[in-house]
Specification:
With 399 residues, the protein is an alpha/beta fold. The chain has 13 helices and twelve strands. Helix 2 runs parallel beside helix 5 and helix 7 runs antiparallel to helix 9. Manganese (II) ion binds next to loops.
């Protein structure tokens, strides 16, 4: 069917509602875009992946083999955000592990990148197809399932993902369910911005007031982040090279922060963890931005959970400028599904925290914790006792 503009705001809201519910309920997502992907394709996939990552979903980004060198900077964002890069179908998991394909920025189904290799996934009627796109040309055709096509006029597909993120922010039920405190991380904002400026040629071809509004919002969000972090810079990029340079700088920063945290890794029987004490945390906050620290803590929690095969824990002290809390994050390996992490919250009577069966976050006032080593040890040993009852392989495990 030929693509047409969505008839009314009510219809658009219905589509957004259905898409956001699918994000909440489903897991195992493939993101794809059009052949010879451009900035908007890659940026949209990355932004979409980051959004789904906030909901702790497994995401596979289908990038093809011939990714332009510049776009690799953009894909670097995926490294520490649990977005897996697939060159073709051989890098994708089995059909049963995928529930949804999101087709981004692609005028018609015949133009989908690696179309042949993902055809079995596309043809599987159990897999939901969601489309997000801004191409309304005469020969355009829908790729998504009926009711799941967010296809409407916009500067770029990235702009539509920006739009979707504002809608998600208004869904307080989902924001609470997935413990999302900040959707607009630096990586997300920069991805959306990159898609918009890529497709509108550095903002020169922004047509409507709405397009200019989105560009304005995301570039000022990004500017304010830079100002906060006292970096000299501005989203007033004058060419894509500057954008790539910014992406490369970000990726170096992330890598250094990640390395610092992973070097402090420790192992218990079923839990791999990183404890960043007051000094470690102070050192981190002196060098890295808040955004980077939070993102990397999350990346480490994911990494250590998969590495242990069971659970992970990451803890760090907030900068006194942010809060008076010590932050804890626990994650479950995706291979180990029989344990609901929320049990830990009730075991330790933790009220300031929450999450879902596969991931929890909680915080304690710094003053409440006299000895962080001892506190973490109690959490670990208590959790492992709880686990011992649940883990069949742990019969000979004596807590
Ligand atoms: Mn586009």
């Amino acid at each position: 069917m030929k693509k047409r503009e969505i008839k009314s705001i009510a219809e658009k809201n219905r589509i957004v509602e259905k898409i956001l519910n699918a994000f909440s309920e489903r897991d195992g997502f493939i993101l794809c875009s059009h052949e010879n992907p451009d900035e908007d394709c890659i940026a949209s996939m990355v932004a979409m992946g980051l959004l789904l990552g906030k909901l702790s979903k497994r995401v596979f980004l289908l990038a093809g083999h011939n990714i332009h060198e510049n776009y690799r900077y953009m894909l670097n964002i995926c490294r520490y955000n649990s977005i897996e890069i697939a060159e073709n179908s051989t890098d994708l998991p089995d059909m049963e592990e995928i529930s949804t394909i999101i087709i981004l920025d692609t005028p018609k189904p015949s133009m989908i990148l690696e179309r042949k290799s993902i055809k079995p996934y596309l043809d599987n009627s159990k897999i939901l197809k969601i489309e997000i796109d801004h191409h309304l040309e005469a020969d355009s055709e829908y790729s998504g399932d009926n009711g799941y096509n967010l296809v409407t006029e916009a500067s770029s597909t990235a702009e539509l993902i920006g739009f979707l993120s504002f809608k998600l922010q208004k869904r307080t039920d989902l924001m609470q369910k997935f413990e999302i405190t900040n959707l607009f991380t630096r990586n997300f904002v920069l991805s959306v911005l990159t898609g918009i400026i890529g497709d509108s040629k550095m903002g020169r071809y922004l047509k409507s007031n709405r397009e200019r509004w989105f560009y304005g919002v995301f570039s000022s969000l990004f500017d304010s982040m830079l100002v906060r972090e006292t970096f000299s810079g501005s989203s007033n990029f004058s060419n894509m090279e500057e954008v790539y340079r910014e992406l490369a700088r970000l990726s170096d920063e992330e890598e250094a922060c990640y390395r610092y945290m992973i070097e402090r890794k420790r192992k218990a029987s079923f839990i791999h963890y990183t404890l960043l004490n007051r000094q470690d945390s102070r050192h981190l906050t002196e060098i890295f931005s808040k955004d980077t620290i939070i993102t990397m803590a999350r990346a480490i929690a994911d990494k250590l959970a998969e590495e242990s095969g069971y659970l992970s824990l990451v803890c760090y002290y907030d900068d006194p400028l942010w809060s008076d809390f010590v932050q804890f994050r626990m994650r479950r390996s995706h291979l180990y599904r029989d344990f609901d992490l929320r049990k830990i919250l009730s075991l330790f009577n933790i009220t300031n925290g929450g999450g879902h069966p596969g991931a929890i976050g909680f915080r304690k006032e710094k003053g409440e914790i006299k000895d962080i080593e001892k506190f973490v040890e109690e959490i670990i040993s208590g959790t492992e006792k709880l686990l011992a009852g649940d883990v069949p392989e742990a019969l000979d495990f004596k807590p």
